[in-house]
Amino acid sequence: MPTTLILGAGLAGLTAARELTQQGHEVLIFDKGRGVGGRLATRRIATGRADHGAQYFSARSADFQALTQEMRAAGVVHDWHIEQSDPASFQHPRYVGTNGMSSIAKFLAQNLDVQTGKRAVTVQQDAQSWSVTFDDGQTITGDSLIVTLPAPQALALWQESGLTLSAGEKSALEAIHYEPCIALMLQLSQPGNVPKPGGLKLPPDSPVAWIADNQQKGISPDVPTLTLHASNTFSQQHVDDTNLNALIPELIAAVSDYIGPATIVDQQIHRWRYSNATERYSEPFLAASTPAPLLFGGDGFGQGNVEGAFLSGLAMARFV
């Protein structure tokens, strides 16, 4: 039985693992984080919940529509009728995880061999296999390797491993560009003033680009929580700050029309260094010219965003 190793347990990695497992492959998936999902991320804040990564998704392709309906029937996702100022740009339903966006990743990870808290430190290849050594000293070998890490992290891993890609492959990965995002989560003692249905884009000159009411989204039904995504400009300026907590007052002040500062019960701030792939590889994945199969994919490939990550993982699995 062929064995495939997958680095990264975000949507692309989980989708590839699920599809390959259904095809009869042995699949081992690894992630340096404490849980699965990557930017399908939901966090407990005091007694509430807040999505602090991806906020919602649409499903346009037949394959992703089929998965979405499967998850909808299982109660994993539900519709979110978010409005947009330009109706022409809103032709597809939006969905959210019923218990947060991380519930999507947990659903996909069922019956998969996922090991979290394992960071790949070196990769080695021979004519027929790949070996990955992790920060706990363990080395694991497989017939194929799928890498869904953000492209800069994948390139750094290859450099640290003393491996080389072809000039074209290296150039393709280097051309993928991500914008950072600083996310602030707030629990309130009473609901805020975010208009229905609970998601709002702010003006381009604001330090905050997006504000979401997680109670209105349905993921924190009993406790009001809000998520603020800082603008790209603000996030770029502060992504390397050592004290992110110092940014909180400025972000809160930017949304004073929607939040009464006296109602804030708890707050958490998170740095997404690779939040949004603004320059992507045109195809759903990149197959390297190596003796044993090596594929790079994720939301930096193809159409990007949540559905693009799914389609990348599915395409890699079908290629393998």
Salient structural properties:
Amino_oxidase; FAD-dependent oxidoreductase; alpha+beta; six-stranded mixed sheet; 320 residues; five-stranded antiparallel sheet; FAD/NAD-bd_sf
Description:
This protein has 320 residues and is α+β, with helices and mostly antiparallel strands. 26% of the residues lie in helices and 30% in strands. It contains 9 helices and 18 strands. The strands form 5 sheets. A 6-stranded mixed beta sheet has the order 7-2-1-11-18-17, covered by helices on one side. The longest helix has 15 residues.
Q: Main sheet, how many strands, which sense, barrel?
A: 6 strands, mixed
Roughly what is the average pLDDT, rounded to an integer?
94
- Quaternary organisation of the protein chains: single chain
Low-confidence stretches at least 5 residues in length (pLDDT < 50)? 85-90
The counted number of beta strands is: 18
Structural class per helix/strand content? alpha+beta
Tally of contiguous helical segments: 9
Order of helices and strands: EHEEEHEEHEEEEEHHEEEHEHHEEEH
Shape from CA axes? globular
N- to C-terminal separation?
13 Å
